[in-house]
Amino acid sequence: MKVKLLSQLCIGALIAAAVCFSFIGSAAAQPLASHEAEPGIADETCLECHDVPGLTTTLPSGEEIYISVDRVMHTVSIHGRNGYACVQCHRDIDGYPHREIPVQTAREYTVYQNQSCAYCHPGAAEANRAGAHQIFREAGILEAAVCSDCHGSHNVDSLTPPRSNIPKTCERCHSEIFNEYKDSVHGAALIGEGNPDVPDCSTCHGNHDIKGPNSSDAFRLYSPLICAECHANEALMEKYDISTHVFDTYVSDFHG
């Protein structure tokens, strides 16, 4: 009786902690911030040049990057639909010729430009500073993902597309892990069947404040709490004829 009571108390505490951890680790979809277009250059002025297909510029590294903007793609994006102006993201543009910016390579430019996202998305930017990607960038690994690597730039969409897009986004950098996930019971159900009840990458790792398995001991310690969100949920487990006793026994034994 004492063991059963202790197990029930532990499960309750774990579920409560898991809910809290999940809330901290994954940002809920927020309404798009309302920002009036700042005085400056009109979009049509920018598009006089940047609407030309195949427009490029050469960086000090010798890399050539495309600087054309697909007008239609931007118009249907979340920013375009909400009337955001070019200079709200390209905040260093105040005329032509454009001022020089402190970058040498294409990747340095991507990282530099992503600073603009923080003006409208301060909460996500603050969370990102504690995440694994930012930690790697501070260590000099510029390949670690920034906003536009996951969300795009001129084609940024809302958070409503299929959740199966999330692991496919992560695949761009984490292809080996994606292949393991794709073949797992969770991945097969989400990607193959569109099942909304199974976890995607962000369910366990978070999104902006991503915690990797090597970032600290905290991720490993919290792993059972993450699993508890689903596997201690009696209604959800009953739906798939899965017993919650697996989690119950884990909590009550030596390992839990």
Report on the structure:
With 256 residues, this protein is mainly alpha-helical. The chain has a domain at 30-158. It is built from 17 helices and two strands. A hairpin with a 5-residue loop joins strand 1 and strand 2. Helix 1 crosses helix 15 (217-231), helix 1 crosses helix 17 and helix 11 runs antiparallel to helix 12 (175-182). The relative contact order is 0.13.
Question: Which helices and strands appear, and what pairs or packs with what?
Answer:
Elements: H1 2-25, H2 43-50, E1 56-58, E2 64-66, H3 71-76, H4 78-81, H5 86-89, H6 106-113, H7 117-120, H8 122-128, H9 132-138, H10 147-151, H11 165-171, H12 175-182, H13 185-193, H14 201-205, H15 217-231, H16 234-239, H17 245-252
Antiparallel strand pairs: 1-2
Helix pairs in contact: 1-15, 1-17, 11-12
What does this entry show, briefly?
The chain is mostly helical and 256 residues long. Helix content is 53%, strand content 2%.
